[in-house]
């Protein structure tokens, strides 16, 4: 109605049109006076949408409202979270949702698994004291590429990983050696996994003895006993974007880029004490606090 009055006021007059449409003249003039402010808000929203889009693209189109809002605040933009949600909804900018994955756990019925030292407590106060590990399979046109990872529960940083065209014990041992080689582990730390044959093998247990760590295993068939590792696989497979790679070499390169460039150093995660930080920043914050 106000737009119509504005367009026709030179022909019929404001008083007549307001009377005809049963609108108070004061309301029409108040809206007219606020036009400049509305235009400024619209321009500000357009600028904010541009910033949101840039952050969303940089996150591999994976960030939803919480991480977009956290990244904006890290960049010095004091913006309301509801405003971010509204603009993302209006412009169809969405984060990813995770999908289910197939399990690779093949328990060795003859092996004696280690006790569960985690007890579904996927929290650690200090880096290098609790690790969780698992194996997943990535599809390529050449066949499966198997990936083993070890995550530090204090930071959720991937501290060790290995890739191969098989999932024998060598795969998880190489990933553990990488975690140890980075020099961030403490004597007697816990390495938790499922009861797959790779983790109950004599080769893996021999490596555990040499490194002086404590092995922990969840129950067979219970994904919740290794939920932190399962969660990382769901995150990786959804946020990496690719569903089937043309070959194993390409898959290796993209997994390396995802872990080292994006996940460990750029992807924000909400820490219960520090707020939104990357895994690498969380480790640095822990080290700073320990030094202090």
How far apart lie the N and C ends?
A: 64 Å
- SSE succession: HHHHHHEEEHEHHEHHEEH
What ranges have pLDDT less than 50 throughout 5 or more consecutive residues? none
Largest sheet: 5 strands, mixed
Mean pLDDT: 84
User: What amount of the residues lies in strands?
Assistant: 5-15%
Number of strands: 7
What is the number of helical segments per DSSP (H or I, 4+ residues)?
12
Widest beta sheet: strand line-up: 3-2-1-4-5
**Shape summary:** elongated
Q: Indicate the radius of gyration in whole angstroms.
A: 27 Å
Walk me through this protein's architecture:
This is IS3 family transposase. By secondary structure, the protein is an alpha/beta fold. Helices cover 48% and strands 15% of the residues. The chain is built from twelve helices and seven strands. The strands form two sheets. It has a five-stranded mixed beta sheet, with helices on both faces. A hairpin with a 2-residue loop joins strand 1 and strand 2. The chain is elongated, with a radius of gyration of 27 Å. The chain starts with a helix and ends with a helix. The relative contact order is 0.12.
């Amino acid at each position: 109605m106000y737009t119509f009055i504005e367009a026709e006021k030179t022909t019929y007059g404001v008083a007549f049109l307001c009377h005809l449409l049963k609108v108070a003249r004061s309301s029409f003039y108040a809206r007219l006076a606020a036009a400049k402010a509305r235009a400024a808000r619209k321009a500000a929203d357009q600028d904010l949408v541009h910033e949101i889009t840039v952050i969303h693209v940089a996150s591999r189109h994976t960030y939803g409202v919480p991480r977009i809002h956290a990244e904006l605040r890290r960049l010095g933009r004091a913006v309301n979270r509801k405003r971010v949600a509204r603009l993302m909804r209006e412009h169809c900018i969405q984060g990813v949702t995770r999908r289910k994955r197939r399990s690779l756990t093949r328990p060795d019925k003859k092996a004696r698994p280690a006790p569960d030292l985690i007890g579904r407590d996927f929290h650690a106060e200090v880096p290098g004291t609790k690790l969780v590990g698992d194996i997943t399979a990535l599809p390529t046109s050449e066949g499966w590429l198997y990936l083993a990872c070890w995550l530090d529960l204090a930071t959720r940083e991937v501290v060790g990983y290995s890739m191969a065209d098989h999932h024998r014990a060598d795969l998880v041992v190489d990933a553990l050696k990488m975690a140890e080689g980075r020099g961030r582990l403490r004597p007697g730390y816990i390495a938790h996994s499922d009861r797959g044959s790779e983790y109950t093998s004599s080769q893996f247990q021999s490596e555990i003895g040499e490194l002086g760590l404590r092995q922990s295993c969840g129950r067979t068939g219970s994904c919740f006993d290794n939920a932190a590792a399962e969660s990382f696989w769901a995150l990786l497979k959804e946020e990496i974007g690719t569903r089937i790679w043309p070959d194993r070499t390409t898959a290796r390169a993209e997994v390396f880029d995802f872990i080292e460039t994006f996940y460990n150093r750029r992807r924000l995660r909400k820490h219960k004490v520090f707020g939104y930080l990357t895994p690498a920043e969380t480790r640095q914050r822990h080290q700073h606090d320990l030094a202090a």
